[in-house]
Write a structure and sequence with these properties.
The chain is of the alpha+beta class and 300 residues long. It folds into two domains: 186 residues, Regulatory protein AraC (Jelly Rolls, Sandwich), CATH 2.60.120; 107 residues, Homeodomain-like (Arc Repressor Mutant, subunit A), CATH 1.10.10.60. Helix content is 48%, strand content 16%. The chain has twelve helices and nine strands. The longest helix is centred in the middle third of the chain and has 30 residues.
Length: 300
Protein backbone atom coordinates (compact mmCIF):
# COMPACT_ATOMS: atom_id res chain seq x y z
CA UNK A 1 0.00 0.00 0.00
CA UNK A 2 1.41 3.40 -0.98
CA UNK A 3 2.04 6.04 1.64
CA UNK A 4 -0.68 8.64 2.17
CA UNK A 5 0.68 12.18 1.91
CA UNK A 6 -1.19 14.66 4.10
CA UNK A 7 -1.19 18.25 2.86
CA UNK A 8 -2.27 20.15 5.94
CA UNK A 9 -2.47 23.64 4.46
CA UNK A 10 -3.18 25.21 1.10
CA UNK A 11 0.32 26.65 1.24
CA UNK A 12 1.81 23.15 1.53
CA UNK A 13 -0.26 22.00 -1.47
CA UNK A 14 0.95 24.94 -3.56
CA UNK A 15 4.55 24.37 -2.51
CA UNK A 16 4.22 20.66 -3.34
CA UNK A 17 2.96 21.47 -6.85
CA UNK A 18 5.22 24.44 -7.50
CA UNK A 19 2.46 27.05 -7.60
CA UNK A 20 2.76 30.62 -6.36
CA UNK A 21 0.07 31.70 -3.92
CA UNK A 22 -1.53 35.07 -3.58
CA UNK A 23 -1.44 36.72 -0.15
CA UNK A 24 -4.59 34.90 0.96
CA UNK A 25 -3.46 31.78 2.84
CA UNK A 26 -7.00 30.68 3.75
CA UNK A 27 -8.34 30.55 0.19
CA UNK A 28 -7.03 29.73 -3.27
CA UNK A 29 -8.41 28.71 -6.65
CA UNK A 30 -6.78 27.39 -9.80
CA UNK A 31 -7.90 26.46 -13.28
CA UNK A 32 -8.25 22.71 -13.75
CA UNK A 33 -5.98 22.98 -16.78
CA UNK A 34 -3.16 24.45 -14.66
CA UNK A 35 -3.49 21.79 -11.99
CA UNK A 36 -3.38 19.00 -14.55
CA UNK A 37 -0.10 20.32 -15.91
CA UNK A 38 1.31 19.52 -12.46
CA UNK A 39 -0.42 16.14 -12.16
CA UNK A 40 2.91 14.31 -11.84
CA UNK A 41 3.61 16.26 -8.67
CA UNK A 42 0.46 14.96 -7.00
CA UNK A 43 1.15 12.02 -4.63
CA UNK A 44 -0.42 8.68 -5.48
CA UNK A 45 -2.58 8.91 -2.36
CA UNK A 46 -3.15 12.11 -0.43
CA UNK A 47 -5.46 13.97 1.90
CA UNK A 48 -6.10 17.63 2.64
CA UNK A 49 -6.27 19.49 5.92
CA UNK A 50 -8.75 21.88 4.30
CA UNK A 51 -11.87 21.86 2.12
CA UNK A 52 -11.82 21.52 -1.66
CA UNK A 53 -14.36 21.95 -4.46
CA UNK A 54 -13.91 20.81 -8.03
CA UNK A 55 -15.86 22.19 -10.99
CA UNK A 56 -14.76 20.01 -13.90
CA UNK A 57 -15.69 19.77 -17.57
CA UNK A 58 -14.41 17.29 -20.16
CA UNK A 59 -11.97 15.70 -17.72
CA UNK A 60 -11.57 11.99 -18.38
CA UNK A 61 -10.10 9.43 -16.02
CA UNK A 62 -10.71 8.11 -12.53
CA UNK A 63 -10.39 9.30 -8.98
CA UNK A 64 -10.48 7.05 -5.95
CA UNK A 65 -12.13 8.38 -2.84
CA UNK A 66 -11.76 5.94 0.03
CA UNK A 67 -12.59 2.59 -1.57
CA UNK A 68 -14.83 3.97 -4.31
CA UNK A 69 -13.86 4.96 -7.82
CA UNK A 70 -15.35 7.92 -9.61
CA UNK A 71 -15.44 8.50 -13.36
CA UNK A 72 -14.74 12.19 -14.01
CA UNK A 73 -16.82 12.16 -17.19
CA UNK A 74 -19.96 11.64 -15.08
CA UNK A 75 -19.74 14.58 -12.69
CA UNK A 76 -19.31 18.32 -12.72
CA UNK A 77 -19.23 19.65 -9.15
CA UNK A 78 -17.64 17.70 -6.29
CA UNK A 79 -16.91 18.52 -2.65
CA UNK A 80 -14.14 17.23 -0.39
CA UNK A 81 -13.85 17.62 3.38
CA UNK A 82 -10.54 17.52 5.31
CA UNK A 83 -8.80 14.17 5.88
CA UNK A 84 -10.56 12.28 3.09
CA UNK A 85 -8.07 10.05 1.28
CA UNK A 86 -7.93 10.67 -2.49
CA UNK A 87 -5.99 9.32 -5.44
CA UNK A 88 -5.98 9.93 -9.20
CA UNK A 89 -5.60 7.37 -11.95
CA UNK A 90 -5.42 7.59 -15.75
CA UNK A 91 -6.32 11.26 -16.05
CA UNK A 92 -6.69 12.61 -19.59
CA UNK A 93 -6.55 16.38 -19.65
CA UNK A 94 -7.30 17.07 -23.32
CA UNK A 95 -10.05 19.74 -23.56
CA UNK A 96 -10.48 19.69 -19.77
CA UNK A 97 -11.54 22.92 -18.08
CA UNK A 98 -13.00 24.20 -14.84
CA UNK A 99 -11.84 25.27 -11.39
CA UNK A 100 -10.40 23.84 -8.20
CA UNK A 101 -11.20 25.77 -5.03
CA UNK A 102 -9.37 25.33 -1.72
CA UNK A 103 -10.27 26.97 1.58
CA UNK A 104 -9.73 26.62 5.30
CA UNK A 105 -12.65 26.76 7.70
CA UNK A 106 -10.93 29.66 9.47
CA UNK A 107 -11.81 31.87 6.49
CA UNK A 108 -15.37 32.08 7.84
CA UNK A 109 -14.21 32.78 11.39
CA UNK A 110 -12.06 35.70 10.29
CA UNK A 111 -14.97 37.15 8.32
CA UNK A 112 -17.14 36.86 11.48
CA UNK A 113 -19.63 34.58 9.71
CA UNK A 114 -18.91 31.61 12.05
CA UNK A 115 -20.15 29.29 9.33
CA UNK A 116 -20.98 25.77 10.42
CA UNK A 117 -19.72 23.94 7.36
CA UNK A 118 -20.99 20.67 8.82
CA UNK A 119 -24.54 21.71 7.95
CA UNK A 120 -23.63 21.41 4.26
CA UNK A 121 -23.80 17.65 4.26
CA UNK A 122 -22.59 17.21 0.67
CA UNK A 123 -19.00 17.60 1.90
CA UNK A 124 -19.43 14.10 3.35
CA UNK A 125 -20.99 12.55 0.25
CA UNK A 126 -19.00 9.92 -1.59
CA UNK A 127 -17.07 11.21 -4.60
CA UNK A 128 -19.30 9.19 -6.94
CA UNK A 129 -22.22 11.27 -5.62
CA UNK A 130 -20.99 14.47 -7.22
CA UNK A 131 -23.48 17.06 -8.37
CA UNK A 132 -24.56 16.67 -12.01
CA UNK A 133 -25.48 20.12 -13.27
CA UNK A 134 -28.01 21.02 -15.92
CA UNK A 135 -26.90 23.43 -18.63
CA UNK A 136 -28.55 26.36 -16.83
CA UNK A 137 -27.07 25.37 -13.48
CA UNK A 138 -23.64 24.99 -15.02
CA UNK A 139 -23.86 28.51 -16.42
CA UNK A 140 -24.89 29.92 -13.04
CA UNK A 141 -22.02 28.16 -11.25
CA UNK A 142 -19.52 29.29 -13.91
CA UNK A 143 -20.58 32.91 -13.46
CA UNK A 144 -20.34 32.62 -9.69
CA UNK A 145 -16.84 31.14 -9.89
CA UNK A 146 -15.71 33.94 -12.21
CA UNK A 147 -16.88 36.44 -9.57
CA UNK A 148 -15.03 34.47 -6.92
CA UNK A 149 -11.83 34.43 -8.98
CA UNK A 150 -12.07 38.17 -9.61
CA UNK A 151 -12.27 38.80 -5.87
CA UNK A 152 -9.49 36.30 -5.20
CA UNK A 153 -7.13 38.22 -7.51
CA UNK A 154 -8.14 41.64 -6.17
CA UNK A 155 -5.75 43.42 -3.78
CA UNK A 156 -6.27 42.28 -0.20
CA UNK A 157 -8.18 44.66 2.08
CA UNK A 158 -10.47 44.55 5.14
CA UNK A 159 -13.39 43.17 3.15
CA UNK A 160 -11.52 40.45 1.26
CA UNK A 161 -12.33 37.58 3.65
CA UNK A 162 -15.93 38.71 3.98
CA UNK A 163 -16.47 38.80 0.22
CA UNK A 164 -14.71 35.49 -0.43
CA UNK A 165 -16.64 33.68 2.29
CA UNK A 166 -19.87 35.37 1.21
CA UNK A 167 -19.56 34.17 -2.39
CA UNK A 168 -18.64 30.69 -1.16
CA UNK A 169 -21.76 30.66 0.98
CA UNK A 170 -23.86 31.49 -2.09
CA UNK A 171 -22.16 28.60 -3.90
CA UNK A 172 -23.06 26.24 -1.04
CA UNK A 173 -26.69 27.36 -1.12
CA UNK A 174 -26.88 26.80 -4.88
CA UNK A 175 -25.38 23.33 -4.36
CA UNK A 176 -28.06 22.50 -1.78
CA UNK A 177 -30.77 23.60 -4.21
CA UNK A 178 -29.30 21.65 -7.11
CA UNK A 179 -28.83 18.52 -5.03
CA UNK A 180 -32.52 18.56 -4.15
CA UNK A 181 -33.26 18.71 -7.86
CA UNK A 182 -30.82 15.87 -8.47
CA UNK A 183 -32.48 13.69 -5.84
CA UNK A 184 -35.80 14.10 -7.64
CA UNK A 185 -34.41 13.56 -11.15
CA UNK A 186 -32.38 10.60 -9.94
CA UNK A 187 -35.59 9.10 -8.61
CA UNK A 188 -37.16 9.65 -12.03
CA UNK A 189 -34.23 7.81 -13.56
CA UNK A 190 -34.39 5.06 -10.92
CA UNK A 191 -38.11 5.28 -10.25
CA UNK A 192 -38.03 2.41 -7.80
CA UNK A 193 -35.40 3.91 -5.48
CA UNK A 194 -37.74 4.42 -2.52
CA UNK A 195 -39.33 1.00 -3.05
CA UNK A 196 -35.87 -0.55 -3.23
CA UNK A 197 -34.88 1.20 0.00
CA UNK A 198 -37.99 -0.05 1.78
CA UNK A 199 -37.28 -3.57 0.58
CA UNK A 200 -33.74 -3.35 1.96
CA UNK A 201 -35.10 -1.96 5.22
CA UNK A 202 -37.63 -4.78 5.59
CA UNK A 203 -35.03 -7.37 4.76
CA UNK A 204 -32.70 -6.04 7.45
CA UNK A 205 -35.15 -7.12 10.19
CA UNK A 206 -35.06 -10.78 11.15
CA UNK A 207 -37.28 -12.23 13.84
CA UNK A 208 -35.40 -13.19 16.94
CA UNK A 209 -32.13 -11.64 15.82
CA UNK A 210 -31.47 -8.52 17.85
CA UNK A 211 -28.25 -7.82 15.96
CA UNK A 212 -30.15 -7.38 12.70
CA UNK A 213 -31.69 -4.02 13.64
CA UNK A 214 -30.41 -1.69 10.92
CA UNK A 215 -28.54 1.58 11.29
CA UNK A 216 -28.27 4.49 8.88
CA UNK A 217 -24.73 3.39 8.04
CA UNK A 218 -25.62 -0.27 7.44
CA UNK A 219 -28.56 0.65 5.19
CA UNK A 220 -26.41 3.10 3.23
CA UNK A 221 -23.83 0.38 2.69
CA UNK A 222 -26.51 -2.00 1.40
CA UNK A 223 -27.78 0.73 -0.94
CA UNK A 224 -24.21 1.56 -2.05
CA UNK A 225 -24.75 5.20 -1.07
CA UNK A 226 -23.12 7.38 1.58
CA UNK A 227 -25.20 7.85 4.77
CA UNK A 228 -25.69 11.59 4.28
CA UNK A 229 -26.64 11.24 0.62
CA UNK A 230 -29.17 8.51 1.43
CA UNK A 231 -30.80 10.50 4.22
CA UNK A 232 -30.91 13.72 2.20
CA UNK A 233 -32.37 11.95 -0.82
CA UNK A 234 -35.03 10.20 1.28
CA UNK A 235 -35.90 13.43 3.06
CA UNK A 236 -36.40 15.18 -0.28
CA UNK A 237 -38.47 12.36 -1.79
CA UNK A 238 -40.47 11.23 1.26
CA UNK A 239 -40.16 13.93 3.91
CA UNK A 240 -38.37 11.49 6.25
CA UNK A 241 -34.68 10.86 6.85
CA UNK A 242 -33.25 7.35 6.94
CA UNK A 243 -33.50 7.36 10.73
CA UNK A 244 -37.14 8.39 10.46
CA UNK A 245 -37.87 5.44 8.18
CA UNK A 246 -36.07 3.08 10.58
CA UNK A 247 -38.13 4.36 13.51
CA UNK A 248 -41.39 4.02 11.59
CA UNK A 249 -40.53 0.49 10.57
CA UNK A 250 -39.63 -0.49 14.14
CA UNK A 251 -43.02 0.79 15.31
CA UNK A 252 -44.85 -1.16 12.61
CA UNK A 253 -42.89 -4.30 13.47
CA UNK A 254 -43.65 -3.76 17.14
CA UNK A 255 -47.36 -3.32 16.50
CA UNK A 256 -47.50 -6.54 14.51
CA UNK A 257 -45.64 -8.51 17.18
CA UNK A 258 -47.80 -7.09 19.96
CA UNK A 259 -50.98 -7.81 18.00
CA UNK A 260 -50.04 -11.49 17.68
CA UNK A 261 -50.27 -11.83 21.45
CA UNK A 262 -47.55 -14.50 21.41
CA UNK A 263 -44.70 -12.55 23.02
CA UNK A 264 -44.06 -10.66 26.22
CA UNK A 265 -43.16 -7.00 25.85
CA UNK A 266 -39.61 -7.74 26.96
CA UNK A 267 -39.26 -10.39 24.24
CA UNK A 268 -40.50 -7.98 21.59
CA UNK A 269 -38.06 -5.35 22.82
CA UNK A 270 -35.19 -7.79 22.42
CA UNK A 271 -36.32 -8.92 18.97
CA UNK A 272 -36.31 -5.30 17.82
CA UNK A 273 -32.79 -4.67 19.09
CA UNK A 274 -33.49 -2.94 22.41
CA UNK A 275 -31.19 -4.00 25.25
CA UNK A 276 -33.66 -2.85 27.90
CA UNK A 277 -37.47 -3.21 27.74
CA UNK A 278 -37.96 0.18 29.38
CA UNK A 279 -36.10 1.85 26.51
CA UNK A 280 -38.44 0.15 24.05
CA UNK A 281 -41.49 1.20 26.09
CA UNK A 282 -40.32 4.82 26.16
CA UNK A 283 -39.60 4.79 22.41
CA UNK A 284 -42.97 3.20 21.60
CA UNK A 285 -44.91 5.72 23.68
CA UNK A 286 -43.03 8.66 22.17
CA UNK A 287 -44.01 7.49 18.68
CA UNK A 288 -47.58 6.29 19.29
CA UNK A 289 -48.80 8.06 22.42
CA UNK A 290 -49.45 4.66 24.06
CA UNK A 291 -47.23 2.35 26.05
CA UNK A 292 -46.79 -1.17 24.60
CA UNK A 293 -49.05 -2.52 27.35
CA UNK A 294 -51.75 0.06 26.61
CA UNK A 295 -51.54 -0.74 22.89
CA UNK A 296 -51.78 -4.45 23.66
CA UNK A 297 -54.98 -3.97 25.68
CA UNK A 298 -56.42 -1.90 22.85
CA UNK A 299 -55.84 -4.47 20.09
CA UNK A 300 -56.36 -7.75 21.99
Amino acid sequence: MSKITHLGTIASLYEHMGFSMLEKPLFAMERVENVLEKINYIPQQFSYGFYAIGFKKNLQGYMKYGRRQYDFTKGVLSFTAPHQVLSFDNLLAENASGWYLFFHKELFNISNQNMELEKFRFFDYEVNESLHLSEREETEISELLERLNKEYKAPIDKTSSLLLSGILNVLFLYAERYYKRQFITRNDYDSHFVDRFKKVLRGSFKDGDSESTPTVVSLAQMMNISPNYLSDMLRTLTGLSTQGHIHNHIIEEAKQLISKGEYRISEIAYQLGFSYPQHFSTFFKEKTGLSPSEFKKKVL
